[in-house]
Amino acid sequence: MRIQLLTAVAVLALAAPALAQTPPPHLPADLSPAGVRAADDHLALEQVEGTEAMAFVAAANERSLAALTGDPRYETFRQQAFDILSSTARIPAPSFLGEGIGNFWQDAARPKGVWRRTTLYSYRTDAPVWETLIDIDALARTEGRDWVWKGARCLAPDETRCLISLSDGGKDAVEVREFDTTTKAFVEGGFVLPEGKHRLEWLDRDTLLVATDFGSGTLTESGYPFIVKRLTRGQTLAQATEIYRGDIADGGYGVSPGVYRDGAGALQAVLINRPLDTFRSEVWRVDAGQSVRLTLPERVAVHGVLNGRLVITLEQSWTPFAGPDYPAGTVLALPLEALARPGRMLPSPDTDPDAVFRPGPRQSVADVAVLDDGLVLAISDNVVGTLRRFAFGRDGRPVWSSTPVAAPDNSAVGIGDVSRGSGRMFVSTQGFLTPPTLSLLNADAAELVALKAGPALFDASTHVVEQFEATSTDGTKIPYFVTRPRDLEMDGSAPTILFGYGGFQISFPPAYKPEMGKLWLGNGGVFVQANIRGGGEFGPAWHQAALRGNRQRSFDDFTAVARDLQARGITSPRRLGIYGRSNGGVLTSVSITQHPELFNAAVIESPLIDMLRYPDLPAGASWIGEYGDPRIPGDAAFIARYSAYQQLRPETEYPRVYITTNTRDDRVHPGHARKFAARLADQGHDALYYEETAGGHSNDADPVANARRWARHYVYLAQQLMD
Questions:
Q1: On the chain, which terminus has fewer CB atoms closer than 10 Å, C or N?
Q2: pTM as predicted
């Protein structure tokens, strides 16, 4: 097959009118992988711990720390952030653990944290009595490892045996060890998995289902597993029995087993999710040693099994055989046996026992909880949360009916951990100026029972929250929230942070951000959160509108919000900065290169930036479903139009940006951030670059490091927007 190579001239002919018509100096004329690589003068910075790379990091860190930690505000910001992050007054995030409540807790005395438990009765009190299960600080000291807690997976229903995930330095890759909550010790001779990006589930007390690195040729291009094996107690990984195999060419985040049980712990189904790319997948049922593909669309989210029905949310429109048409975003409960027998699903009658909830045009399903007697859905309506309980056949008719659960108005509503056995779940509500409230929802209750209210960690009395809409380039209305001083003068003088993400169907409802409130709002700043396309605020269609070749819509939406803020007199280009991390790093780096005249600051954190090489930087190939594949000529054409690393121009005046990442980030390669900073410097642009050496992609391994991180962010933003 002959592949036609695209030239820079051809690419620019396709470019948006707002972009210059002369090629940037580092946009390769040859957009083939070899051509892109040949035009890249900073490939050495892709070697995570290479000599040249680490020398670059050391020099850049020294310069940036002098500029940021040398600022007289730094120590105040750091101490304020640390006090918030380590506050003993904050709500201990609970999970159901057997008959009690589990919690992972970090504070000033235990920065790495402790996994602990108490009773629900004690948890309700102002001073719960906690029993320590694992002390991560002590474990790290004993073993000489930089352990970071990554969670526990416990076997229902008693949950006394748990698989503990520990990361060395905060990476996504973890070691797994079996733990006994009755003895409060790791199980001698128990299950142990070496470091890897594992996908695992308990099948029974002596058996695990594991997808992991089983040796040469068992990982996809992205470094994720595509084989599932049954591992019996006492076996090595090499002795485990294969039960399912995808393909080495699979995309996404790796094949994963799912074991579904009822409230008593009885097995309902074993399902395998095989990702084809970032969002498309196949769902297989494993029964009696046989694997059968379920007749489902490729874009679907599986939530659980209820009375023989598989509960799903459609992420594409679907017509099951001769049944009715279901739009994307619909929640269905479909007979599992029928899904395993292609061609046997009958059309639903007018009463439609399969449809649980059909969202309206400005609605989306945020969370789904599956209980033994029904479902609870957290529903977003114009980015504001509501809660509804759904039951089947309650009125004697074979349909789903719903009743509202009373929740605070104008808040984000999130479903936390669920105890299927007791029919209870934790629910959180919060807003930009309203601290979280943690509540318990009991079986068949019509309202939430408040358990704990989070403390006010900054003074919100002087501020208000408003929701506006901006009009994007194609006429689409883009909602955004403004948190501002109540008496703000609308003269364009307010220092303002504009936050956005716009990817992977991830929603950003109102959320209490105490470090932002204390360090930014408390000093007279304005915070704006834009709900741009690419996110999930209005369901799958809102996300899919900005996929692949339509990515420019996300950038245009963000630009529209920036201009709307300025038109309203809230801020001005001199006082407007932007912040984004991970996929938000694509957004912020592109915003700076496409519209430098609109902004005076950008915090670009843990970013993707070199979009013409991102599949070659682990684990980039897993995101091809989101961005497209630049190794394919047609995809390279639309990616090259925005990829910020190649679009930088020496003659353009950019604001001084702050780029930051983490050496231990094994999700978004640090090479993206390094190369962007290096090219800015090559072209004579002023920029700050700082690379943390531990913490991973989440950057929140402990409150000590996280406080320093937020202090650096807000010192930089204050320098650019307030000084």
A1: N
A2: 0.94
